[in-house]
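Suppose a classmate hands you a notebook page containing two proteins, each written out with its sequence and a corresponding row of C-alpha cells. How would you begin to make sense of it? This section walks through that situation. The first entry is reproduced here exactly as it would appear on such a page.
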Amino acid sequence: MRIAILFASLVLPFTTARAQQLSAKDVSKYVGNSKWAWTIFLTGPRALLNEIDYVEYQTSDSSKSVQRVEITSNPRYPFGFEGTSSGVLEINIKVVFKNGESQDIRHLLHLARAPSPCLPIMFVLGERPVRLADPRFKGDVYLYVDEIRDQWRKRPPTLTVLYGFTSIWQYDQNGQGPHVLANNFASRTKGVPASTKWSLTVREEGDAIWFRYGTATYLLTVKKVSVDVPLQSFGLNVDRANQITIQICEASPNLIGNLNSTIGLPLDSGAPQCR
C-alpha cells in the first residue's frame, strides 16, 4: 500500500505541472458586419509543444464539427485554428500527446473591441479627391465631389465613392488629395467596375447613399453643403472654398438583408433608414 501511494504522489505533480504549463490564447480582429475573425492556439514550453501529436477544437456551437489540427502552419500560433463568429464563443480543446495521454482545455474567446459604427465627420472639398483613412477600408477607398457651385441646388454636385483602382494622386497625412478637374477624374476612373463605384447627386442636405466594402454595408450621408468657408485647417494654397460635410456609418446587421436591392441607390429611391 505504501508503494502505491508513493507512486501516485510522484505521478500527480508531473501531470499537474504539465497541465499548468499548457494553455490556450487567441488573437482576433473585427471584420465588419458584426463579425470577428480569430485564431486560437496553444502556448507552453517548446519541449512540451513538441510532445503534442494533434489538437481537436470544437466551438460551443454544437452545430460545428470537431476540427483536428496536426501541424503548425504559422509558427507564431502553435496548432492554430482559425474561425469567424458574431460574438464570444467557448472553445473545447482536446490535446493529444504522442504518448497517448490527453488534456482537455476550455477557452473563452477574447474578441477585439469593435470600432464605432460611424467614422468621424469628414469635409470633402469640391474637385479634390479624399482617401478614407479608417483601417476598415485598408487605404483604398476614395471620395470625390465635382464642382460645388455657390448656387449648388440649381446645379447639384455629384459625390462619388469608389475603390478598385490605383490612384495616381498624392495625398497628405489627412487623406486630402490635389485639385483634380471632373473630366480628369472621370477619365482616370472610367475603368472602375460598377460593383465598386457609387455616385449620388446631392440635391439637398440629408441626401444619402448605400455602398458596400468587403462584407460590410455603409451609409454615406451628406450632413451639410457649405459655400465660401475658410480653409486654414486644410493647409491648402487657397483661403476659401466650397465643401460638403459627410458622415459614413456601418449599417446595423438587421438591415443587411433588406439592402440588396438598394445598394448604390439614394435614400429617396426606397432604401431603408440606417438605425
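The notebook's second entry, a different protein, reads as follows.
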Amino acid sequence: MGYVYTVATFTGTRGSWTGRCLVDTGAALSVLTPAIAEQVGATFTSTRDSIGIAGGRRIEAPRAYCDVAIQVDAEERRDLVFIWVVEGEEEPLIGAHTLQWLGLKVDPTTERVEIARPWMLRLGFAD
C-alpha cells in the first residue's frame, strides 16, 4: 500500500483551513503544523504529551482540539477532535483515533478513505 491522502477541513476559533492531509493508520494521533493550528485558532489545552514520531524519537507536543471534517463521497463526517501540534511537520496527518472517531477507515486496495460504520451523534468534551 502506498501513501493515502484525503482532503480535510480543520476549524477553530479564528477560521478554517482546507487541504490535503496524509492519512496514517499506523499513527494513533492526528497532527497539525503550528502554522495551521494558529491560522484556524485551535484551542490549546494545558497538556503537553510525550509522543512517538517517525524514526522512533519521542518529543513533547502541545495538545489542542478543533473541529475536523472529512468528505467521503456524498457524506461529510465532522466532529471535535484532539490534535497535537508538532514543530517541523510539513503536512497535517490524520491518525487512527480520528478515523475511528469519525467512523472512517482506509481501504488498502483502493488507497481511499471510506465509511466504516453508520454515523452517530457524539456529545462530549465537557468544560
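A careful reader of the second entry would note: The helical segments are 34-40, 96-101.
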